[in-house]
Write a structure and sequence with these properties.
The complex is a heterodimer.
Chain A: H1 2-20, H2 25-45, H3 69-100, H4 105-112, H5 122-125
Chain B: H1 2-21, H2 26-51, E1 57-60, E2 71-74, H3 76-98, H4 103-125, H5 129-148, H6 153-184, H7 189-197, H8 203-220, H9 228-232, H10 238-263, H11 269-290, H12 295-316, H13 319-350, H14 361-364, H15 366-380, H16 386-400, H17 404-430, H18 462-480, H19 482-497, H20 500-508
Antiparallel strand pairs in B: 1-2
Classes of the chains: A mainly alpha, B mainly alpha.
Keywords (chain B): Cell membrane, Membrane, Transmembrane, Transmembrane helix, Ubiquinone
GO molecular function, one term (chain B): NADH dehydrogenase (ubiquinone) activity
Organism (chain B): Thauera aminoaromatica S2
């Protein structure tokens, strides 16, 4: 089981990094998501994968072969946070498309390197 | 006592919620926001006073004892960081009052700043690795929205770089936290430190820590992973970039200091690597700045360079060097935020932040020249300002540790920093304004005098000047009263160098 999960994590991370090296911002954002899922799976595997019982402790005591619930809660937290960040990244992607007319990463970074525009006179801005 | 420990989290969180409810009334939002930031400063100073008595305060969330509850810890370093966070946050909010260009932006700004402050304070006081990850995410979400605030092509482009690189760093951190838990069975920093000291952890736990430190290095903008910082900080709204410049990389530096001193208190291979990284960071940052021709881009590269000094202190790992790093952290946050503020005011007065299009500020606004000179000279390390003492201690510590190269690099970097600051001084202040002089009279340009050029009036910038003046006064005060501040830093470094007290405080703080 561990070997399968380890390989899956490795493949997911590799795919994620490969996608993030792409020129299109959409694939970069999706690459971040794939990478994030690989990482989540890795964190999940920290809580033992061979636990057959759910970690419910009753008055009679905890089951002998239980999975460690802590990494599961950690992953739950990470999934929620990751989802929020993914939505923000999508919003940035959408605005980039609207403002730049394309989503090519090297052309977008070139915009950030452009000389600073002159500030409008204070009266105009107010 | 417990209430005070959680105050740095509750105050900005309550302020955030209050500003959201007060959204229809911009003045109320600003007032609440400022009150919240000042309250945070007050709580931070109270914590400093408490921590200065020598004890380490630990609080277990929900009263669960150490391995189960999330630990919040206040020692001298984290208390000082919370106080300085409150001060820089307050200055940012005061500064933002001056820029009334866009009221809607101002309103969102306050809620987001407090969201950011929650994350920053949380990262400073938490004693749990996974909780640190959560605070990093909290401050990251706030910083994403702040960076893009106001919109525009250039700002969005900078945000793309910032978002992607920071997401990758956070994922590395999460992965490292998971692996560390898998290898050691704990996420509580004190218990981890105990296990590391006793040699009870497998070698994979050390590997996970290395991965974690790499993630923090990206956050702290160390060589060779600093590229995102100068590619994004210069696009933000002035108060936002000042807040980022002051606080965000320093959270990464703080996390590095905290984990390295806890897990590897003895100098070892990691310190050796960090020493070379620190030297490269100092030098590459300052050389990068030399190639820049815009105020905020120059200052962004200087953030990178200055972070190198703090890591130098950490890498040397002697109590004196750690004290230097702590002092540097305190001094640098104030100075760097202030320089970004002044850069923003200078750009507002000259109509540009490109050095070529600036000029004439010395004749137009001599008070700004004085206010610029204080943090600029402090950054370069000219006595008696705060930066001198910070650099002096670090160079002395390097010489004590026979790290000749590091001492040399630190001195050369100081020299280049001075060069860089004099470049801004010559171009923005001394040289006449390229679009015709403002004919030397400060009030002549009141109101917009055409979009083309000429110097503009400082009308409406009064709150910004208060913020800048207060931070400049603090820089002078830290420089003149270096003794007490350095005593505090030395005591903080002693706490860092001997993690037994930290571990003890957390373990004893058990549930109640």
């Amino acid at each position: 089981m561990e070997i399968v999960v380890a390989l899956t994590v490795g493949v997911l991370v590799a795919i994620g990094i490969w996608m993030m090296l792409d020129r299109g911002l959409l694939r970069v954002v999706l690459g971040v998501v794939v990478l994030g899922n690989g990482v989540n799976l890795a964190v999940f595997s920290a809580g033992r994968l061979d636990g057959l019982a759910a970690a419910f402790a009753s008055a009679a005591g905890a089951p002998a072969l239980a999975a460690n619930p802590l990494p599961q809660t950690l992953v739950l937290t990470a999934i929620v946070i990751g989802f929020a960040l993914f939505v923000f990244a999508l919003a940035v992607l959408e605005r980039s498309w609207a403002l730049h007319g394309h989503v090519e990463t090297d052309r977008i970074t070139a915009v950030a390197e452009e000389p600073a525009p002159d500030l409008p006179a204070p009266r105009d801005a107010a | 006592m417990n209430a005070l420990v959680v105050a740095p989290l509750l105050i900005p969180l309550a302020t955030l919620v209050a500003t959201l409810f007060a959204r229809p009334w911009p003045r109320a939002v600003a007032a609440l926001s400022l009150a919240g930031a000042l309250a945070l400063t007050g709580a931070g100073l109270a914590l400093v006073a408490l921590a200065a008595q020598g004890g380490i305060l630990a609080s277990q969330a929900g009263g669960w004892a150490a391995p189960y509850g999330i630990t919040l810890v206040i020692d001298r370093l984290s208390a000082a960081m919370v106080a300085i966070t409150g001060i820089v946050g307050s200055a940012t909010i005061v500064f933002a009052l001056a820029r009334d260009e866009d009221p809607a932006r101002g309103r969102d700004f306050h809620a987001l700043v407090h969201g950011l402050l929650v994350g920053v304070c949380g990262a400073f006081i938490t004693g749990d690795v996974f909780n640190l990850y959560v605070w990093f995410e909290v401050l990251l979400v706030g910083s994403f929205a702040l960076l893009v605030l106001g919109g525009g092509r250039r700002r969005l482009a900078g945000t793309v770089v910032y978002v992607v690189l920071n997401l990758v760093a956070t994922m590395m951190f999460l992965l490292a936290a998971g692996l560390l838990y898998g290898a050691s069975g704990s996420l509580n920093m004190a218990l981890l430190a105990q296990a590391f000291a006793a040699g009870e952890v497998p070698v994979t736990a050390h590997a996970a820590v290395v991965l974690m430190l790499t993630a923090f290095s990206i956050k702290a903008a160390l060589f060779p992973v600093f590229g995102w910082l100068p590619a994004s900080y210069h696009v933000a709204w002035t108060p936002v970039s000042a807040l980022f410049a002051g606080l965000l990389t320093k959270v990464g530096v703080y996390a590095l200091i905290r984990l390295v001193t806890l897990f590897w208190p003895e100098a070892g291979i990691a310190h050796e690597v960090l020493l070379w990284v620190a030297c490269a960071t100092m030098l590459i940052g300052v050389l990068g700045a030399a190639a820049q021709v815009e105020v905020r881009r120059i200052l962004s590269f200087h953030i990178v360079s200055q972070v190198g000094y703090m890591i130098l202190g950490l890498a040397l790992a002697t109590p004196l060097a750690l004290a230097g790093a702590v002092f540097y952290l305190i001094h640098h946050i104030v100075v760097k935020a202030n320089l970004f503020f002044i850069g923003g005011i200078a750009a507002r007065l000259t109509g540009s932040e490109r050095l070529a299009a600036m000029g004439g500020l010395y004749a137009h606004a001599p008070w700004l020249a004085v206010l610029f000179a204080i943090p600029a000279l402090s950054l370069a390390g000219i006595p008696p300002l705060s930066g001198f003492w910070a650099k002096f201690v670090l160079v002395e510590a390097s010489l004590d540790a026979r790290a000749w190269v590091a001492a040399g690099v630190a001195l050369v970097t100081g020299l280049f920093t001075l060069l860089s600051m004099s470049k801004i001084w010559n171009e923005a202040f001394l040289k006449p304004h390229p679009a015709g002089e403002g004919s030397g009279s400060a009030g002549s340009g009141s109101g917009g005098d055409g979009s083309g050029g000429g110097l503009r009036s400082a009308d409406g910038l009064r709150p910004a000047l208060w913020a800048v003046g207060a931070l400049a006064a603090m820089t002078v005060a830290i420089g003149l009263a270096a003794g007490p501040v350095m005593d505090y830093a030395v005591a903080a470094a002693q706490q860092l160098a001997a993690p037994a007290a930290y571990i003890d405080a957390v373990v004893r703080a058990g549930g109640n």
